[in-house]
Amino acid sequence: MAEMQELKRRAAEAALERVEDGMRLGIGTGSTAEAFIRLLAKRVEGGLGIVGVTTSERSEALCRELGVPTETLEAVPQLDLTVDGADEIDGRLRLIKGGGGALLREKIVAAASDRMLVIADASKQVDVLGDFPLPIEINGFGLIATFLAIQKASRAMGLDPDLTLRRVGEEPFITDSGHLILDAAYDRIEDPEALSAALHSVPGVVEHGLFLGLATEAILASADGVSILRP
Q: Which of 34, 60, 88, 106 is catalytic?
């Protein structure tokens, strides 16, 4: 565990070198993003001037605690750079995100940014996406109908995912935007673009964790050092 935390810190440290004074910065969610926030706070304390837009209430609270200045996306609708983690990343910088439950806000912030820099330990890089269950954020209304529609759309593509409603204890997990999450175990997603379109065709789906065409660069940390992945 300590070794993994050190790899996350190294990736975050390398990402911080991309942050310039005056930047409008999207700030991600998750353990690697939190490592970045802690390092960013030290730079801010030393005089770095940035304004951050966070992707979750969790990251917002940590920024407030550490003195990182933040604004809403409404106040700062165009961003220079977003720094965020990933649950999986392939060689074309296609991602699965949403393990932390913030995928909708993460995708909105990434889309509002000129660049998206992914930070992760090297174990997150895969040849084919899908080993990590794909989070699908859905409206609470019509849960079962949406569940069945996702199954149908997936099976039409030759996929048969194991769908699980995410919970916290006995209660359903609720996102910061008030939605539910279905975690879809696909095993292998050979055509992420086609699956993305199929899921977006289901009315109850708010968003999914396939991030396609958003990441512009990735920093991956391993025991051998830090490597840069570009499309």
A: 106
